[in-house]
Amino acid sequence: MRRLVLVLMLLAPPALADSMIATRTIHALSVIGPDDVAMVAADIPGAMTKLDDAIGQEAKVTLYAGRPIVEGDLGAPALVKRSQLVTLVFQADGLTIHTDGRALERGASGDLIHVMNLSSHLTVSGAVAPDGSVVVGPKSKD
Q1: Do residues 37 and 54 lie in contact, with contact meaning Cβ atoms separated by under 8 Å?
Q2: Using alpha carbons only, what angle is made at residue 76 by residues 66 and 30, rounded to the nearest 5 degrees?
Q3: What is the pLDDT of residue 137?
Q4: What is the rounded CA–CA span in Å between residue 113 and residue 97?
Q5: What is the distance between the alpha carbons of residues 119 and 128, in angstroms, rounded to a whole number?
Q6: What's the domain range around 95?
């Protein structure tokens, strides 16, 4: 019965307002692809309305087939995973220091995460850079 409802929703003619649903069960931390979501002719409160806003994003929670996707369900994909080796970068007044660290949590670009400096074994906080390194010090708060 559920499949029939999903098929009917997908085959319905376009309406004035479209809403996004998951076409299959998508587990948390999975990156959304074009085949994972579809638009249905329904005005579902809170549901996303543009496919481009979802494709390439990461599911923060499990998304179930046929259910609407709201913006809070998705976020930027993680560049750094827990226990991953990362480069720590400290920059101040023309001085740049690079060292190795181990991420203690996951993070997407711009997220503030904790990293253990492998040289000193101290835990520091830093912002994940777009290249996957972690910037610590004054630049990490930008």
Answers
A1: yes
A2: 45
A3: 85
A4: 19
A5: 19
A6: 85-141
For the question of whether the overall pTM of this predicted structure is more than 0.90, the answer is no
Instruction: Give 15-74 pLDDT, tens digit per residue.
Output: 458 999 999 999 999 999 999 999 999 999 999 999 999 999 999 999 999 999 998 999
* Amino acid letter for position 5: V
Residue pair 102/83 in contact (Cβ under 8 Å)? The answer is yes
Residue that is last in its domain, among 50, 75, 100: 75
CA distances from 103 to 56, 107, 141 (A): 23, 9, 18
CB–CB of 118/99 below 8 Å? yes
User: Would 80 be classed as within a structural domain?
Assistant: no
Residues 6+ apart with CB under 8 A from 6: 23, 65, 66
Structure tokens at 78: 């993680």
